[in-house]
Amino acid sequence: NNSQHIRNFCIIAHIDHGKSTLADRFIEKARLVSSRGPVQSQMLDNMDIERERGITIKSQAVKIPYTAADGTEYELNLVDTPGHVDFSYEVSRAISSCEGALLLIDASQGVEAQTLANMYMAIEHNLEIIPVINKIDLPSADIPSCLHQIDHDLGLDPDMAVMVSAKTGEGVDTLFESIVQFIPPPTGNDNSPLKALIFDSQYDSYRGVIIHVRIFEGMLKEGATAQLMHNNAAYEIDEAGVFQMGLVRTGELKAGDVGYFLAGIKNISDIRVGDTVTLASNPAKEPLAGFKDVKPVVFSSIYPVDSNDYEELQQAIDKLKLNDASLVYEKDSSAALGFGFRCGFLGLLHLEVVQERIEREFGLSIVFTSPSVKYIVTMKNGDVLNIDNPLDYPDPMRVDYVEEPFITASIITPATFVGAIIPLCMEKRGVQSGMNYLDEKRVELVYEMPLAEVLFEFYDRLKSVSRGYASFDYQVSGYKRTDLVRMDILVNGEPVDALSQLVFRGTAQARGRTVCEKLSTEIPRQMFKIPIQAAIGGSIIARETINAYRKDVTAKCYGGDISRKRKLLEKQKEGKKRMKMVGNVEIPQQAFLAVLKTD
Ligand code: GTP
């Protein structure tokens, strides 16, 4: 059986430890791209946003042919995974399609919060783990201490560790040999009924829905009828193949393979990541285990800037959902913004990525409302409500008590920064529940914190007080009672429902002040004076004023140069497209976003 010569593996690591760079070296060694031509770095990071930010958001797969030292030919399927906490769901999906994982550790940083979190995920799925120490070319590399951490913190065998530099390529050959030696081949029988796990999908405007699968049992062939096990929808398979810097048609996929198929799927919602595909002619009895349902933790509404774009926005979100199974949404409407969608996200970075993808991939101009967590509100009459939208918040007089989600945060930091991190956690209403010395120099701080507090710039502040050294990971731990109020924002005396926020009473005033200040700088002057106020119930807690506008943009053109004048007016019109009329005030999209980023 040739599946003996297949190895399916992923690279897992803390953010920035070098996964994408290592993947580049693999691809280069395998001569999938010419090493002489201009090599684009981060070859698996396809999306513009990934390249610009230098982060991986989506897991990507690629097949690499490899001839081992003993002459045996292997087929390596590599899945690159993201490192940021918001995308750990992508990691879990990548892990489910592999037998082994390379656990990458930056030689100058050592083991960090997501190194541990990702390793536990790999262990849970019974993957063979090879520890890899990367960036050994750095002068600050500390290999002995990494080996100690591999043994002591991770409980892995330090003798198995492979030392590499993803930058120079040093050690990569040894790593290839370790992969074929230690990672087991896939099991599974070509003759059993087909069981293919859908681990991803994407929408391509020319080819339709491209479904990414890992074949666990049986064979998938062009011409056969595929059946989706969750709803029994059947589609004829038009094309099947593998990932090799793009799609390469092979006609069939066998047990153990990772690849794709196309089947002229019209109904996008038939496709669910985590579902099992089988064949209508010889269906499997039971589906594969699939994935845990993701629970969104941050909620926000998306509205088109131009209400006529609502239909298009609906289509864009449907298509995006194909490629991002963690996105959940339902219809929503607001007095200020019209019709839109209430969406659930895995974190603020996820929200930003969705926003950028909608704008770039679908060319739509949108506004997001202030993000919120989900609160549990118990009413005096005993009713219990789940509230994530400030617009749904009931009359406070009828509320008995409110609970908010808490997280257990694990922060790993060099001991020297503990003194700066503790006050930050306290300011964010954190309560310390543990402090563990991992070794002489590194400490793990464990905090119980309200999730709502880490949503707003906690991560950035943590990075800045620790000069980038502290790392952070969290899990939602449960709900605790809180003192919640709804803060409304009034622009020119009118409440703008899309700007309302649910906030902790103790920090409401400070927050109200920052929001008003932000808005007063973001909303352009208009022909009249505009008061901006924050209010709780009937009482105003903060206020700013935008003075009336006097100058005309074209005034400085002295009437002479017509074309320049026209250009200026065009520009002003462009700017207007991204404005939303609220009452008689124009609020730019930027203002809605700026409010999210208060610090
Ligand atoms: P995410 O995809 O965002 O999770 O990050 P990543 O783990 O893929 O890290 P990436 O490959 O983007 O590398 C992060 C940074 O480390 C980049 O600036 C790389 O150039 C650098 N880097 C990666 N490997 C090495 C190495 O072996 N040596 C040195 N000196 N730098 C490296």
UniProtKB/TrEMBL annotation:
Location of the protein in the cell: Cell inner membrane
Pfam families registered for this protein in UniProt: EFG_C, EFG_III, GTP_EFTU, GTP_EFTU_D2, LepA_C
InterPro entries noted in UniProt: EF-4 (IPR006297), EFG_II (IPR041095), EFG_III/V (IPR035647), EFG_V-like (IPR000640), EFTu-like_2 (IPR004161), G_TR_CS (IPR031157), LepA_C_sf (IPR038363), LepA_CTD (IPR013842)
Species the sequence originates in: Parasphaerochaeta coccoides (strain ATCC BAA-1237 / DSM 17374 / SPN1) (Sphaerochaeta coccoides)
Chief location category: membrane
Binding site for GTP: 16-21, 134-137
Gene name tied to this protein: lepA
Protein name per UniProt: Elongation factor 4
Keyword Cell membrane: yes
EC number: 3.6.5.n1
The Tr-type G domain, residue ranges: 4-187
UniProt KW keywords: Cell inner membrane, Cell membrane, GTP-binding, Hydrolase, Membrane, Nucleotide-binding, Protein biosynthesis
Membrane topology value: Peripheral membrane protein
Catalytic activity field: GTP + H2O = GDP + phosphate + H(+)
Cellular component GO terms, alphabetical: plasma membrane
Gene Ontology biological-process annotations: positive regulation of translation
Role: Required for accurate and efficient protein synthesis under certain stress conditions. May act as a fidelity factor of the translation reaction, by catalyzing a one-codon backward translocation of tRNAs on improperly translocated ribosomes. Back-translocation proceeds from a post-translocation (POST) complex to a pre-translocation (PRE) complex, thus giving elongation factor G a second chance to translocate the tRNAs correctly. Binds to ribosomes in a GTP-dependent manner.
GO molecular function annotations of the record: GTP binding; GTPase activity; ribosome binding; translation elongation factor activity
Top-level EC class as recorded in UniProt: hydrolase
Family under the similarity heading: Belongs to the GTP-binding elongation factor family. LepA subfamily.
HAMAP family for the chain: LepA
Keyword GTP-binding included in the entry's annotation: yes
